[in-house]
Write a structure and sequence with these properties.
mainly alpha; 2 domains; 76% helix
């Protein structure tokens, strides 16, 4: 039955039907053709999967990002970062990487980051004289740092399926996110120096720095507050999501005075639509996940892998290769939901902690966000920059190498995902 459903899913997906709808159609048709399980169980599983309190965090984090990334707050943060590192080689491009890292502590969505930061910085980089494909590639790769720095929507989805602690995953993602940020900034520096990209040569003015730091303070405080509240158990991830939205409303309304009914309506609609997309994928994937478990595929897969590959390092390598291939063709939330039930038992069999597996999986699948043929952030930034996908992919090669190198570190060095 699992094989039948996977075959139907591939067939339906090739018809360019959205992934969530393809999952539902494949599951229902597979159950109906096989005739072993009542079809109405699919509806029950879809509804049951949404009855989870931690899922409330998703719309609130989405709305927080929509409120804070736009407007004066986003621009003040870019001004501060430009003043700090705009003078080094590749500095303006590094501003994009750092902006994505900091906004990772706000929205938790790579797609939202690519849209908001990309729309702000890609035209600016092009105006400075940066090649449009390089600007698009930098922002496409940097946007994925967003899902490592807490809060992270994919981490919430992974925790929902694996039973891992959301708070522990959030804390474990901090060091990998910072390492990814440092690696991508290094790429920008090397490319900027090698290709002599333009940079700011004006003298540094401390008074201007103090002014910009004061204006960007609320943006810098948000991720710090989230991490402190989670690390010391002051609030649960769901409570933190609500508080972050209240914080964003207060900052936009009282500090920056750019909160309007139109902006509030736009943020609410954007958060609602984004949450609907994520929840639809969760509901659709839950049916296949239930069928896979019903047929004991994870147990059989674990037995096959341990008996065939035997060595733990080979099993971990095989898991990474499967994730890389999957992430290139399936959206990240759907891939997390489909692979987690398979890999959690296998990771346990080779002594890998579920938190380390979660970080490894999210880093791995995030590469697919800026790699063809799906490449969501790749398509977004290429569209903003008005350049061909192929030209952007060439510029992304150094970013791919850095990401895969760090991925191997997260896979084989558990202390890099401490929590």
């Amino acid at each position: 039955m699992t094989t039948l459903i996977i075959g139907l899913f591939i067939l339906v997906a090739l018809l360019s039907i959205p992934i969530a709808h393809a999952l539902v159609l494949a599951s229902v048709c597979g159950l109906w053709i096989a005739g072993r399980v009542p079809v109405d169980l699919a509806i029950q599983q879809m509804i049951t999967q949404t009855q989870s309190f931690p899922l409330i965090a998703i719309p609130f984090f989405m709305m927080t990002g929509a409120l804070m990334v736009s407007g004066k707050l986003g621009q003040s943060l870019v001004n501060l970062l430009t003043l700090m590192i705009g003078r080094v080689h590749g500095g303006p491009a590094q501003v994009g990487v750092l902006s994505s890292t900091i906004f990772g502590g706000v929205s938790g969505s790579a797609v939202a980051d690519a849209s908001a930061i990309g729309s702000m910085l890609i035209p600016w980089l092009k105006k400075l004289g940066y090649p449009a494909p390089f600007a698009a590639g930098t922002l496409a790769a940097a946007a994925t740092i967003d899902i490592l720095i807490p809060p992270s929507i994919p981490m919430i989805v992974y925790a929902l399926v694996s039973g891992a602690s959301i708070g522990a995953l959030f804390v474990a993602g901090i060091l990998p996110g910072l390492l990814m940020c440092g690696g991508f900034m290094l790429v920008c520096y090397v490319q900027g120096r090698r290709r002599n990209f333009p940079r700011d040569t004006s003298p540094f003015v401390w008074r201007e720095f103090a002014i910009q730091l004061r204006q960007a303070g609320p943006a810098l405080a948000m991720p710090v507050l989230i991490i402190v509240f989670l690390r010391f158990g002051i609030a649960t991830p769901t409570e933190v999501s609500v508080m972050s939205t209240l914080y964003a409303l207060l900052v936009s309304g009282l500090v920056y005075s750019d909160l309007s009914w139109a902006k509030l309506k736009h943020a609410a609609v954007e958060a609602g639509v984004s949450t609907g997309v994520v929840l639809l994928i969760i509901m659709a994937s839950s049916v296949i996940g239930w069928i896979v478990t019903y047929e004991q595929i994870p147990a059989e897969f674990t037995k096959f892998a341990t008996e065939t590959l035997k060595s733990p390092w080979l099993i971990i390598l095989a898991m990474n290769l499967i994730m890389l291939a999957t992430g290139m063709f399936i959206d990240l939330p759907a891939a997390v939901l489909l692979l987690t039930p398979m890999f959690v038992p296998l990771a346990s069999a080779v002594g890998m902690d579920s938190i380390q597996l979660g970080i490894m999986m999210i880093v791995n699948l995030s590469i697919g966000l800026y790699h063809p043929p799906i490449g969501t952030t790749l398509f977004i930034t290429s569209t903003i920059a008005k350049v061909r996908i192929g030209d952007v992919v060439v510029e992304l090669i150094p970013f791919y190498l850095v990401a895969i190198g760090l991925l191997l570190g997260f896979a084989y060095l558990p202390w890099l995902t401490i929590y």
